[in-house]
């Protein structure tokens, strides 16, 4: 059994992960963290607020962390100090905070993935392949929609899609456009638009549009609950436990060639 700690266990993903770890045959809950410590008892979970303290008694092999970029940076440092592997699903990283996780991943294995759903990762791969095949004759746009409580925008998945599309088309960060307003003029050929919708209880939707002359291709993934994110995270936890230190992503877990 793989001894697993879940951070942010009172969150939306934390609750999904708690149920899935309990249902799994090969992972066991070794502890959990939350800032709402009084809720741990009713969840039947042992743990506390500080991951370092939880790890000092939990004999954990892996931490699954869906919290926030800021919290994940601190959690990665605490795991690195104790030699515990990690799966990080948090989004909202800046180049600097990602570099901090990469620094921790010099001493422990870390899977850092803005989307742990296998289906989404297949879509990411197909999006790059479609862009390569279609080439320059199509205008590429990414649209994402999420629930009203989501804190970061665009979603980590939309940013990942934009990154792999840019790489497939030989374009760079400067070609990404996150908003349009006013007299913007004709669309530059090189542009890749990334647009955000927020509202209601939308779990997560991503579409890549390829607008051509006289046709349009749309590649869409819609999550209708959080289970596939959680199941993918458990798969990543099994894969990362006992690996060599390094920063990995879901492409590594799934045995795909990296797309960017
Ligand atoms: N990779 C993937 O496939 C997916 C990634 N995500 C990402 O996972 C993250 C969590 O999403 P979700 O579960 O919906 O969010 P929630 O807000 O429901 O849960 C976040 C949890 O993390 C805790 N947390 C947040 N910030 C901190 C902090 N600074 N220190 C300690 N604990 C903290 C919260 O604690 P408290 O309750 O005390 O506020 C809460 O328990 C987001 O970044 C989201 O984008 C989400 C779904 C899928
Ligand atoms: O916050 C969410 O809910 C989600 N976040 C991830 C992201 O930012 O890409 C993945 C998923 O779509 C749900």
SSE blueprint:
Blueprint: E1 2-7, H1 12-23, E2 27-33, H2 40-43, E3 47-48, H3 51-58, E4 62-65, H4 69-82, E5 85-88, H5 95-104, E6 109-112, H6 118-134, E7 139-146, H7 156-168, E8 176-177, E9 192-198, E10 204-211, E11 216-223, H8 227-240, E12 246-248, H9 250-254
Parallel strand pairs: 1-2, 1-4, 2-3, 4-5, 5-6, 6-12, 7-9, 8-9
Antiparallel strand pairs: 7-10, 10-11
Helix pairs in contact: 1-8, 3-4, 4-5, 6-7
Task: Describe this structure as you would to a colleague.
- The structure is a single chain.
- The protein is of the alpha/beta class.
- The chain is 37% helix and 24% strand.
- It has helices at 12-23, 40-43, 51-58, 69-82, 95-104, 118-134, 156-168, 227-240, 250-254, and strands at 2-7, 27-33, 47-48, 62-65, 85-88, 109-112, 139-146, 176-177, 192-198, 204-211, 216-223, 246-248.
- The strands form two sheets. It has a seven-stranded parallel beta sheet with strand order 3-2-1-4-5-6-12, with helices on both faces.
- Helix 1 packs across helix 8 and helix 4 (69-82) runs parallel beside helix 5 (95-104).
- Bound molecules: NADPH dihydro-nicotinamide-adenine-dinucleotide phosphate (NDP) and ligand LZUJQKHR.
- NADPH dihydro-nicotinamide-adenine-dinucleotide phosphate (NDP) binds at residues 8, 10-14, 34-36, 66-68, 70-71, 89-92, 113-117, 152, 156, 229.
């Amino acid at each position: 059994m793989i001894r697993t700690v879940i951070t942010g266990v009172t969150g939306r993903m934390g609750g999904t992960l708690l149920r899935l770890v309990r249902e799994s045959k090969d992972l066991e809950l070794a502890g959990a963290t939350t800032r709402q410590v009084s809720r741990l008892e009713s969840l039947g979970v042992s743990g506390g607020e500080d991951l370092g303290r939880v790890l000092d008694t939990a004999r954990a092999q892996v931490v699954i962390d869906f919290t926030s970029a800021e919290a994940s940076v601190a959690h990665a440092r605490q795991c690195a100090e104790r030699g515990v592997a990690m799966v990080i699903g948090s989004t909202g990283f800046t180049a600097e905070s990602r570099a901090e996780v990469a620094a921790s991943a010099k001493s422990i294995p870390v899977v850092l993935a803005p989307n742990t759903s296998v289906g989404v990762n297949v879509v990411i791969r197909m999006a790059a392949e479609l862009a390569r095949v279609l080439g320059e004759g199509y205008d590429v746009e990414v649209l994402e929609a999420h629930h009203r409580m989501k804190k970061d925008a665009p979603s980590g998945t939309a940013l990942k899609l934009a990154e792999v599309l840019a790489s497939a088309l030989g374009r760079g960060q400067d070609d990404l456009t996150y908003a349009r307003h006013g007299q913007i003029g004709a669309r530059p050929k090189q542009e890749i638009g990334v647009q955000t919708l927020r509202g209601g209880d939308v779990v997560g939707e991503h579409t890549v549009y390829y607008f051509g002359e006289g046709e349009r291709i749309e590649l869409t993934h819609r999550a209708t609950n959080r289970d596939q994110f959680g199941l993918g995270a458990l798969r990543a936890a099994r894969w990362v436990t006992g690996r060599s230190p390094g920063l990995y992503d879901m492409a590594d877990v799934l045995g795909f060639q990296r797309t960017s």
